[in-house]
Design goal:
- The protein has helices at 2-10, 14-29, 36-41, 43-61.
- By secondary structure, it is mainly alpha-helical.
- The longest helix is centred in the last third of the chain and has 19 residues, at 43-61.
- The protein is elongated and about 40 Å long.
Length: 62
């Protein structure tokens, strides 16, 4: 756990960048028929929002 905290302390914006990429990936996945289950449920969108919120909270704490 300490290694993860040290890594996130050095790269504070990484979870936010990952969340932005997940939201953009969700937009792209909606137009790929073979990945319809991800697009219909907006799984990547919801995951991106959660990761982004946690990233903001962790950036403030560290």
């Amino acid at each position: 756990m300490q290694k993860l905290a040290d890594f996130l302390e050095r790269v504070k914006g990484l979870p936010i960048v990952i969340s932005i990429l997940l939201v953009i990936l969700n937009f792209i996945v909606q137009y790929i028929p073979s990945l319809a289950f991800l697009g219909d449920s907006n799984l990547l969108l919801h995951l991106g929002v959660v990761v982004g919120l946690l990233g903001v909270l962790l950036a403030e704490a560290l």
